[in-house]
């Protein structure tokens, strides 16, 4: 089930999953949750319905009657409604259009609240939602601008939520600040996403976390950790997990060899 708010991220999500559906043997349904908190909410629903029609996908919609209209209450009610629609349609996964920018905002908001490791892990790419239904965020590493460009390239309509301009909402204030920072820090969202992934694997005690520590400790013992790119470490982690061998140039003058599950660091 593709959760489509009518915004560019969720419209791009619907199009991307539709393009993959035949190969992956997915049965897709587009779903829209109408929060009913502003006069133009019906337009969002109409756009989501139009996107489903353009992609020739089934469409389901439901409305909310909220006792509270704060962000947390709306999010909880939205997920509950999506889980219900998914069960009705016999879908086992609800996919949302959360992107790399959303992940950065989530991590920073958690940090500003004084969070622990779980908050710094950000949003997981997949988690249980309700019963046998999972929540998936397949676009969590994609840039918002790329998703909007993809929707444009296909000529698909999307809406711009006017509430996104309300700086009284904390997420919008953080989003505006990040807009000013990104030109100064290229790759900002990718860096935050990597950090959140590493923290998340530690929190979940994922097997990759122990292997990653092994690689980093081997480099640290040879005073070779400084300046090593994250992606180079991850390449060695994948080789160890998959039981393959290889030589990995971690940084100028630093080579890591993986063979038979063993690590060897060489300085040149």
N- to C-terminal separation?
53 Å
Cα Rg: 21 Å
The major sheet is characterized as: 3 strands, parallel
CATH-assigned homologous superfamily of the largest domain: HUPs
In CATH, the architecture of the largest domain is 3-Layer(aba) Sandwich
CATH level-3 fold name of the largest domain: Rossmann fold
Number of alpha- plus pi-helical segments:
10
- What percent of residues adopt helix (DSSP H or I)? 40-55%
Tell me, what's the shape? elongated
Helices and strands, in order, run as EHEHEHEHHEEHHHHHEEE
Number of strands: 9
How are the strands of the largest sheet arranged? 1-2-3
Our count of domains comes out at 2
Low-confidence stretches: none
Strand content: 15-25%
CATH top level of the largest domain is: Alpha Beta
Average pLDDT figure: 90
SSE-based structural type: alpha/beta
Structural commentary:
This protein has 268 residues and is an alpha/beta fold. The protein has 2 domains: 2-179, HUPs (Rossmann fold), CATH 3.40.50.620; 206-267, no CATH class. It contains 10 helices and 9 strands. The strands form 3 sheets. It has a 3-stranded parallel sheet, with helices on both faces. Strands 4-6-5 form a 3-stranded mixed sheet. Strands 7-8-9 form a 3-stranded antiparallel sheet, with helices on one face. Helix 1 (8-24) links the parallel strand 1 and strand 2. It is elongated and about 65 Å long. The mean pLDDT is 90.
Please outline the helices and strands.
Elements: E1 2-3, H1 8-24, E2 30-34, H2 41-54, E3 59-63, H3 71-88, E4 93-95, H4 100-112, H5 117-120, E5 126-130, E6 133-136, H6 144-153, H7 170-181, H8 188-203, H9 207-221, H10 230-242, E7 246-251, E8 254-259, E9 262-267
Parallel strand pairs: 1-2, 2-3, 4-6
Antiparallel strand pairs: 5-6, 7-8, 8-9
Helix pairs in contact: 1-6, 4-7, 4-8, 9-10
């Amino acid at each position: 089930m593709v959760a489509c708010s009518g915004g560019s991220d969720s419209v791009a999500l619907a199009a991307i999953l539709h393009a993959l559906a035949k190969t992956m043997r997915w049965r897709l349904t587009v779903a829209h949750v109408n929060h009913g908190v502003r006069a133009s909410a019906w337009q969002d629903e109409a756009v989501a319905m139009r996107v489903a029609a353009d992609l020739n996908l089934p469409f389901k919609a439901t409305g909310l009657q909220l006792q509270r209209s704060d962000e947390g209450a709306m999010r909880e009610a939205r997920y509950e409604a999506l889980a219900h629609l998914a069960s009705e349609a016999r879908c086992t996964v609800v996919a949302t259009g959360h992107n790399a920018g959303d992940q950065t905002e989530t991590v920073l908001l958690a940090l500003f609240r004084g969070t622990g490791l779980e908050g710094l892990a950000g949003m997981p790419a997949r988690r249980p939602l309700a019963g046998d239904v999972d929540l998936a965020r397949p676009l969590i590493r994609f840039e918002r601008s790329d998703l909007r460009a993809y929707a444009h390239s296909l000529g698909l309509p999307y809406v711009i939520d006017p509430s996104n301009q309300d700086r009284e909402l904390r997420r919008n204030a953080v989003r505006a600040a990040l807009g000013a920072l990104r030109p100064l820090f290229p790759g900002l969202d990718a860096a935050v996403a990597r950090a959140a992934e590493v923290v998340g694997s530690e929190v979940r005690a994922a097997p990759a976390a122990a292997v990653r520590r092994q690689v980093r400790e081997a480099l640290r013992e040879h005073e070779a950790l400084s300046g090593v790119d994250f992606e180079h470490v991850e390449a060695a982690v994948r080789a160890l997990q998959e039981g393959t061998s290889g030589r990995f140039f971690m940084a100028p003058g630093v080579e890591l060899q993986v063979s038979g599950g063993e690590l060897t660091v060489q300085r040149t």
